[in-house]
Amino acid sequence: MITLVLGGTRSGKSEVAESLVAAAPGPVTYVATGRVTDDDMGARIAAHRARRPASWTTVEAGTDLPGALAGLTGSVLVDSLGTWVARHADLRPDTAGLCAALRARAASGAGATVVVSEEVGLGVHAPSEAGRRFADVLGTLNRAVAGESDRVLLVVAGRVLPLERAAGLA
Cβ atoms within 10 A of the Cβ of 122, count? Predict the structure, then answer.
């Protein structure tokens, strides 16, 4: 089963995803996509690390998230697609490769996969071309991953809303 957990900054999306994967059969692998780029990002990463149980394995994905997912068994938590997109200087993440890796995990019965991503469509319009491009790329990636997902959840202010497919859309 693939679950996509969307939410804005500080919405609680990561905590929701952590609780979902903690309830899934183990072992659990946390696939980290972020890196420390400044003090604020360092503090965010440290907070995520502190919440994770010591029994969880951590894999640093870098830019090759599809490759990092290949061969993992047990439950997997990917956090997050936004930081993965940001690691690509050209803002061209391998969306097709990621979707294929998610499908392969699901088809093999390797375990539950929970993917966290930032919902960029609810924020203010980015004031720069780079910001608008990032939002477009991440929005397109979110739609592609949602299309592969069995369940999509939106987290707003710590509250979880299940999202249904739009009528007539695949």
Answer: 12
Query: Rounded to an integer, what distance in angstroms lies between the CA atom of residue 40 and that of residue 42?
Result: 5
The number of residues making up the chain comes to 170
Q: Give dist(CA 46, CA 32) in Å, integer.
A: 12
**151 strand-pairing partners:** 3
Catalytic residue among 48, 52, 87, 105: 48
Tens-place pLDDT, residues 66-117:
999 998 999 999 999 999 999 999 999 999 999 999 999 999 999 999 999 9
48 is catalytic: yes
Structural domains in the chain? Answer: 2-8+15-162 (3.40.50.300)
- Global pTM reads 0.94
